[in-house]
Each structure stands twice: as structure tokens, then as C-alpha cells.
From TrEMBL:
Keywords: mRNA processing, mRNA splicing, Nucleus, Spliceosome. Belongs to the CWC21 family. Residues 16-62 form the CWF21 domain. GO terms for cellular component: spliceosomal complex. The keyword RNA-binding does not apply. GO terms for biological process: mRNA processing; RNA splicing. It comes from the Eukaryota. The keyword Transmembrane does not apply. PANTHER family: SERINE/ARGININE REPETITIVE MATRIX 2, SERINE_ARGININE REPETITIVE MATRIX 2. SMART domains: cwf21. Signal peptide: none annotated. This is CWF21 domain-containing protein.
Amino acid sequence: YTNRITRHQNPDENILEHKRKRAMENRCAKLQLELKEEGAVDEGKIDRRVDELRQKLMKEDFKRERGTLKPHEIHELAAMKVQGNRKFCSAIKVNASYVEGKAFDKELQAEHKGNQREAED
């Protein structure tokens, strides 16, 4: 069993953006339906209020809180994992060029020792 969250996987930014836009449009559609059901507002005002809501949501970027993610939202979880890893690496001062497992790569270590010997000469 491999955990889908801990696997090294980069989030697909297009999918994340699509989900944010879809959520914004859902909120706008709900407002539009509510205003039409009231019947007291004309079409021009409905369109203006929906556009105002859309602009407001775009400014806020309509991001969800960390605790509201569901297990099937793999891209969101991966994005949070990448961000968390960056913060952790920054906190323990790990160089951005660090490659996991390079200490166990015999060829790379031999090359590194050769470079050190040349530098000493």
C-alpha cells in the first residue's frame, strides 16, 4: 500500500486553478438563482451583483482553509505538501540544490573526492 499523499508528486496547477474558478462560478450561479427567485430585482441589477461577487472572489482568490480538504483532493494535498516541505527545508536551512540520496551515490562521492584532491593540489 502506497499512500497517495506522501508519494513525490507535484500538483497540477491547471487543475487547481480550474477548481478555484469552478467554485467561484458556482457561488455566482447560486446568487443569480436566489435573486431571480426573489423576483424583486431586474436582470440588469442581477448581472451587476453577480459581477460584483465575481470580482470580489477573484480578489480574494477564493482559497480554502487547510482543514477543509478531502482525501480525494490529491492536487490540493500535494500543493500543501510541497509548501510544507519548502517551509521545513527553510527552517532547517537545507540548500535548495540538495538532492535526496546523493550521500549514497558512490559515483558522485568518488567525483566529489576527486574534485577535493584537485583543489588541494
